[in-house]
Design brief:
The complex is a heterotrimer. By secondary structure, chain A is mainly alpha-helical. Chain A has a single domain (2-50, 66-106), classed as Helix Hairpins. Chain A has helices at 2-20, 25-46, 67-98. Classes of the chains: A mainly alpha, B mainly alpha, C mainly alpha. Chains in contact: A-B, A-C, B-C. Chain B: It is a multi-pass membrane protein.
Chain lengths: 113, 493, 140
């Protein structure tokens, strides 16, 4: 199961890299979203996958999931939610202001500094 | 007061919240910002005195005992850096009054600066690796806002690249923390250190070391990963640039210093040699940039890269002397970079351009600015008795005694290059006959000059008073060289 | 283009309150069961977005009377204030206090200071989400 999850995370990373290498700004942002999904999946796998019990220490502690990775993922999700929001708004403003979402034209030259 | 280590983090947070409420009134914002920054400095000083007398201070947040909850750890290194960061922020806030512009002031500039300080102080203080990530994110999120605030075209363009680079490095950070957690089963840095020393021969530790070097190298701008820095840092105005240049990259360096002395000191022939090589390449890359550009901002920005290389070389040499040199140089570099960027911002403000070929002859009208800038330049290059000297001396000397001749010589030569680049900047901006005669009207720069000059003064005092600072730095170095001190203080064994 | 969305508007008015109540339920469930300020806040802002879809942004903004940015500050104040309260009692930062109370209507209830913190999170989440949506949505 862990290996499958690692492969899925790897696929997500591959897709993210592909999207982030493209020229459209929106695709890049979608790419960062996929990247953080892959990261979170990876993090979940790192704690070891167990099925059938809540991540809480109850009366019967025979099988429980490690709660730490879940707490970490929750934090990481909230952070990536915030970053994606900021990124989207800035990209939108940049698109309005600069009139393009093509990274080639966002390079900037000496002349317009 | 058992919560003393929290104060330098809590005061900026409370201040930022209050500032959000009074965002309509610029005057109130300025007053609250200054009061808050000053009280952060005071609380950091009190905490430093406490750490000096009683040793490492820790707070187990939420009363969860050490390896389970998040622990804030104030050892001497962290509190020295917290104090420096707070002083710099205070000066930058004072400098911002007349330079940042009303539009930015009304658009949450001051709260964001306080949030940035919160992130920086938190990163220096925390003793939990995931919490370090969270504070990094607070700091980065504030820097995203600061880099784009004002919304000029160049800022929007550069901020996209800056955010993208940092999003990727954050993702790698989370993965690396996940790796570290699956290997050691803990997130508390002291606990991780203890666990790693039990399994130090495992090759996975070396993999982790390189991963963390990549992450912190991206923030700290070491050789192949500094590509984003010159473009992004040139976009925002001077006070923001001063904050970025003096604080953000140094947090990356601090993180490398902390992790490489606490976690990854077992496989030194590989990790530290790799770091040493990267350090030298960083210096070379920085020198090339600093000598090639004819632009005030770019020259100073490439000097950041050079300093990062020198610091990294100090960490890579990894002797007591070189770590002491690194700590000395780290604090010096934070202060002097902030001062130089503030002075550089004044030059740009006066000349109306950052292009060196278009300015000149400023010394006639602004002699005080000129000589202060020259003094700061000498300090940056490390001319005795100014502040850069002792740190560089220790780093170079330990390089020679460890047989790292090439590295030590490169560091020495880099000082020459630094001196040449900044003195060249001085000659071009102040001494050269300008192409177009300067207007007779003198711009008012007093309120800009005082904060910048006080940072230069602080740097001079830091250089002259090295003897007084020495015991503090040595206490910081002892903790770094002997991780047991840190571990015992946190886990209370 | 004017579309006839009477059905949508009528349903939205009812569903809005259902979502809000569910959000509040989730918020209070957050101590011992899944839920909490973050989810509650997201749901609440979801409800507001539903109203915005059914009517239009200006009407809803007028109806709410409060600036969502102000909610962010208020929420932060709650959260930071709760955490900082531990300074007064000289216990480690973020230490929370709780006790069981016999309340009318509710019976035996446990009240935490962590709930105040969560209330802050709830407000911040609403404020942030709505600010983002307004920023992107307004400039059409």
């Amino acid at each position: 199961m862990e290996i499958l999850m690692c492969i899925v995370a790897g696929l997500l990373f591959a897709a993210a890299v592909y999207l982030m290498l493209s020229k459209s700004l929106l695709r890049i942002i979608v790419g960062t979203g996929l990247l953080s999904h892959g990261t979170h999946l990876m993090l979940l796998t790192m704690g070891g996958l167990k099925t059938g019990a809540a991540p809480v220490l109850g009366e019967n502690t025979a099988s429980y999931t490690d709660p730490i990775p879940q707490a970490l993922i929750l934090t990481a999700i909230v952070i990536s939610f915030g970053v994606t929001a900021v990124f989207l708004v800035i990209a939108y403003r940049a698109y309005q202001e600069l009139g393009t979402d093509n990274m080639d034209q966002l390079k900037g030259t000496e002349a317009d500094d | 007061m058992i919560n003393l280590p929290v104060l330098p983090i809590l005061i900026p947070l409370i201040a930022a919240i209050v500032l959000l409420f009074v965002s309509k009134s610029i005057l109130a914002q300025r007053v609250v910002s200054v009061i808050a920054s000053a009280s952060t400095v005071v609380s950091a000083m009190i905490l430093m005195a406490k750490v000096k007398s009683d040793g490492i201070q820790t707070v187990d947040m939420g009363s969860w005992p050490a390896p389970f909850g998040i622990t804030l750890v104030s050892d001497m290194l962290s509190i020295l850096l917290v104090l420096t960061a707070s002083i710099i922020t205070l000066c930058v806030v004072l400098y911002s009054f007349r330079s940042i512009g009303n539009g930015r002031e009304r658009f949450y500039y001051y709260p964001i600066v306080q949030f940035l300080l919160l992130g920086v102080n938190g990163s220096f203080t925390t003793g939990d690796i995931f919490n370090l990530f969270v504070f990094f994110e607070i700091m980065l999120m504030s820097s995203y806002v600061l880099i784009v605030i004002g919304g000029t075209k160049i800022q929007l363009r550069e901020s996209i690249k800056y955010i993208l680079v940092n999003v990727i490095s954050s993702a790698i950070f989370v993965i690396a923390v996940g790796f570290l957690y699956s290997v050691t089963g803990s997130l508390n840095m002291a606990h991780i250190s203890a666990r790693i020393s039990e399994i130090s021969t495992e090759p996975i530790i070396t993999v982790l070391a390189v991963l963390f070097l990549i992450i912190f190298g991206l923030k700290g701008a070491i050789f192949p990963l500094y590509f984003w820095l010159p473009g992004s840092y040139a976009a925002p105005p001077a006070p923001i640039l001063a904050l970025f240049g003096s604080l953000l990259t140094k947090v990356g360096i601090y993180a490398i210093l902390r992790t490489y002395t606490l976690f990854f000191y077992h496989d030194q022939p590989f990790t530290h040699d790799l770091m040493s090589l990267l350090a030298l390449l960083t210096i070379v890359a920085g020198v090339i940039g600093a000598l090639a550009y004819r632009d005030v901002k770019q020259i100073l920005i490439y000097n950041i890269v050079i300093a990062v290389g020198v610091l990294l070389f100090g960490i890579a040499t990894m002797t007591e002397e070189s770590i002491a040199g690194t700590v000395f140089y780290l604090i010096h570099d934070m202060i002097i970079k902030a001062a130089l960027f503030l002075l550089g911002g004044m030059i740009i403000y006066i000349a109306g351009t950052s292009n060196l070929t278009k300015m000149g002859g400023l010394i006639r009208q602004y002699p005080a600015l000129g000589w202060t800038f020259l003094l700061a330049s000498f300090g940056l290059a490390g001319i005795p008795p100014l502040s850069g000297f002792s740190g560089k001396l220790l780093i170079v000397r330990s390089g020679f005694s460890e047989g790292e001749y090439v590295g030590a010589i490169v560091v020495l030569l880099s000082s020459l290059a630094v001196l040449y680049s900044v003195v060249n900047l001085f000659m071009e901006a102040f001494w050269k006959t300008p192409e177009t005669p300067l207007p007779d009207v003198k711009k008012r720069t007093g309120s800009l000059f005082i904060p910048a000059a006080s940072l230069v003064l602080l740097s001079v005092l830091y250089g002259v008073g090295t003897e007084a600072v020495y015991p503090y730095v040595m206490q910081a170095v002892q903790t770094l060289i002997h991780p047991e001190i840190y571990i015992d203080a946190v886990l209370k064994e | 283009m004017k579309t006839n969305d009477v059905i949508f508007q009528t349903i939205a008015k009812v569903v809005f309150f259902m979502i809000i109540f569910f959000a509040v339920h989730l918020f209070f469930a957050g101590h011992y069961h899944p839920g909490g300020g973050f989810v509650g806040g997201l749901l609440t802002s979801g409800a507001i977005v539903l109203l915005m879809l059914a009517f239009d942004m200006k009407t809803i903004k007028k109806g709410f009377l409060i600036d969502f940015k102000w909610l962010i500050s208020l929420g932060l104040l709650f959260s930071a204030g709760t955490a900082a309260g531990s300074l007064i009692f000289n216990v480690p930062f973020f230490t929370h206090a709780y006790d069981y109370f016999q309340l009318p209507l509710f019976g035996k209830t446990s009240l935490h200071t962590a709930m105040l913190f969560d209330l802050g999170v709830y407000l911040v989440v609403i404020g942030v989400t709505m600010t983002i949506i307004q920023t992107i949505g307004e400039s059409e």
